[in-house]
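Aim 2, interim progress: modelling of the zinc ion-bound target.
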Amino acid sequence: MSEALLSVGILSADLGRLAEELARLEQAGADWIHLDVMDGCFAPPILGDAALFKAVRRYTKLPLDVHLMVQNPEKKVAQFEGADWITVHAEAGPHLHRAIAEAKRVGAKAGVALNPGTHLSGVMGVAGEIDMVLLVAVDPGFGGAKFVPAVLGKADKIREKLAELGTEGVKVGIDGGINLDNAAQVGRYADVVVSGSAVFKGAGPESNIAAFKKAFGQKD
Ligand code: DX5
Ligand code: ZN
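Predicted structure of the complex, ligand included:
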């Protein structure tokens, strides 16, 4: 497993200055940009939508990773055409397979996300069709929530299961509650680490991103 990549949650930025914030993240060495989309139903807040997605897409060339926390995602995935990655939740409706097919149809790599309380079996039926399993390490809804450590054990387990199936090329992502205190530990379990609020805290993205990448063992 190579060093983890950092995908920065853009909802934690100053969205009134979106273009500048994206340029700043790129300059600071963010590997990917992560856009959380919540429909007020699957996750309580209404946050992130196709208009914001289009603006983010226009202002960054970094890989854009869209995390759909919405019910029945198969009906909504196409609104995010142009994303590099589209991740849907296994818990979000009866048509997970169709949602993945939609993500691929619009040219994205497909991911499946699991909430902390969801067993890994939620993803096994489609493991051969996806590019990433995103283990959400907080109850989805709010930035800055507390990390659920049991997710690290799940990360180990899913790797074993992916290897058994011969699908070890599937990335393992961990999202939520990751800050500079737990980054080194989480980075040992993940190919992609998503962090939002901790990137924009304190000294700001320049020094925080450098510290995240150092924690992951990434070279300058
Ligand atoms: C869970 C979201 C996360 C979260 C990350 O609700 O999927 O992407 O907002 O934010 P932090 O890093 O602040 O927990
Ligand atoms: Zn997310």
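The radius of gyration is 16 Å. The first helix runs from residue 18 to 28.
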